[in-house]
């Protein structure tokens, strides 16, 4: 059970630059999240070098503000050592936690730096309390919940989560579930999972001026009292790519509302709108009012409002501290600075006997109280001074500088110990297996039954023609009873395996006695991740479709590769068909999206009103089997979505004979 019920949430704010960090502190942030120069999901933000990161931590800690570093991208085997070095540099810089998305990378950090706090990024697709329980067992202290979570599902998650829950409450809203978007990667070659998203969701589709994937910015600013009462641990503001002015204004509004435990008024809503808006804000997922009113684009009027926002001049806030100085004859000068309950003391030179004008208390206080560009301001000063003594101003200044440095250092965590680790995952001998998922039972032909060892169908369209089931991409806590019931039903009908794409779904699969097979949604891009998922019982996981042939070879072993099919590009909690004319198109499987260039993307229903957008072209390697053999890729997985039975048989024939499938395709990268 979550024990945070009576505690006011942390206010967690973004910083893409040193000035934005100042703005967050000035606005009243309790914690700030920021990125290093690599391996974070906002690679085009200003970000922080190792030296700048240490200075940022020192400054933030002086103000009582925590720093979380984002290492929230997927990493390849080649990058794992550098990833671990980045984590170690962050630990040495004194960060309070790392926000991570790569399971294998996280496990390496846990072994090497066991006392460094880990938070599970929203890129890990955390949306239920079972996920939180699994994360706790592997050393995570916090999970960032999906932006799509409703109030009801959030309440259930919080009631049953053993770790802290962080929730996005303001900022840009992707239309796809975090960690499940391959659109930018598959279509444009820029991976959102690696911090390079090209934002295809912000482009028009269909009729001119139609933006069915562009959502307004999220804002739960009117629900602050509810979020406090529910027991959310941290309220997170999105915006590492935004200006310092945005950070200042949004942080200031949320700080006031948290302190006063109320929702925003009209004036405060205008401040947020002026800071940044896409034709307003939405809380539709939280309130479960999911419809076309969520859609929004950045208008010229929005830009004009933002241009009127006053510039941020820099950090003016100071931290009040106390000063105590002792300057006595024949004793080293002593200076104590005290911040709250934290005192530090340094000693200096022995004062000399004055021949002319001796020191006065005012002289000493004036020299020692000059805090200058430091975060501090002297609230109270006590000076003990013997008569007839003198000390050069340079010695007093040096005493003050060393005391400030000591106070800064005292607020940094103790140096962490690093343990040498052996990379846990050895290359395993590859297995050979052919498996496939189908969208509808009628697609499963006799030839398919003969060719594939494992055949999967979606949970809500299962048939005994299959021997495996595909779990929904997202299973909120509220869905568990019905999913459990359906899983028991398909097991009774002969299902043996369950394609499982989320840590939070494992308990359901095990409970009903099915064998979990790791789905591509786990985003496995390195051997460490593959080994981790196998170690917790996920059989022969399907590797990320973002990988190249050499990268797939490097992981190898007991894993599968998607060698055919339209790759699912987006998982939407909203239903495009419902917005574009009702459920008929969804039911017939004829819903599509057409981009500016006339490229058509199929859209299929997944679970209830959730949509999956598929790639316009299938991946195919039927006429390049020699390449698959060269890279030791022997376990093949096929995705059949909109293909007819005849087209499916033609695909199987092409792979049996090593010939082209006869239509436009895309390749696995080399």
How would you portray this structure in words?
The chain is an alpha/beta fold and 670 residues long. The chain has three domains: 10-173 and 220-264, Aldolase class I (TIM Barrel); 319-410, no CATH class; 433-566 and 618-657, Phosphoenolpyruvate-binding domains (TIM Barrel, Alpha-Beta Barrel), CATH 3.20.20. α1 packs parallel to α9, α2 runs parallel beside α3 (80-93) and α16 crosses α17 (506-512). It is elongated, with a radius of gyration of 29 Å. It starts with 9 loop residues before the first strand and ends in a 13-residue tail after the last helix. The model has no long low-confidence stretch (mean pLDDT 92).
The largest sheet has its strands arranged as: 1-2-3-4-5-6-7-9
Fraction of residues in helix:
25-40%
Please tally the helical runs, counting DSSP H or I stretches of 4 or more residues. 23
Biggest beta sheet summary: 8 strands, parallel, barrel
CATH second-level architecture of the largest domain: Alpha-Beta Barrel
Instruction: Give the integer mean of the pLDDT values.
Output: 92
Through-space gap between termini: 47 Å
- CATH class membership of the largest domain: Alpha Beta
